[in-house]
Structure formats: C-alpha cells, structure tokens
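Handout, page 2. Input:
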Amino acid sequence: MQSWLERRAELVNQSRDLVRLNGVVAEAEEDLNDCCSCLARLLGVATNRSLSELVGKAELRVKEATDASNQRSEILRNIEQLRSTLTEAQDEYRRNQSDFTKWQSE
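Output:
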C-alpha cells in the first residue's frame, strides 16, 4: 500500500508538472504567433504565413536594403570622383585660357 501511495504521489506531481509545462508551451506558442503577426504586418504580407516564410522574406528585405545601400555608397564615390575630375578639367581650362590670352597678346 505504501508503494502504491508513493507511486500515486509521484504521478500526481508529474501530472502537475505536465499541466504547468503545457501552460508554458501554450504561452510560448502565443508569443510566437504574436511575433509572426507583427513581422507579417511589418513586411506587408498575409499573417497566415509560416515563421520560416516570414524570416525568408525579412532576410530578402535586409539583403535588398544592404545592396541598395552599397549601390548608393558606390554612386556617391563615383560622384565625388567625377566632381574631382570636373574641377581638374575646369582648372586646366582656365590655365589654357589664360595661356591662350597671353599668347594672343604677345
């Protein structure tokens, strides 16, 4: 009888642990669903997509944004180089113009 009572107490404790863990799992699933819904809204897609689809979409957006940023940086570098080249060409034009004016006045 004693072993039966001990086994029963053990099973009751396990049952309580399972109920508690079930609550933790349910809360985690609810948090996951909330996160998925928020991510879907931010991405502008249907909220019924799976987490892996949403993560893939988010990774694609990040890659596109990184690519665009890199392109902007490259374009800005090119603009600076072109401005520098233009300034050099304008300086040379002025020198040539001055030399030409001096040559004509001689």
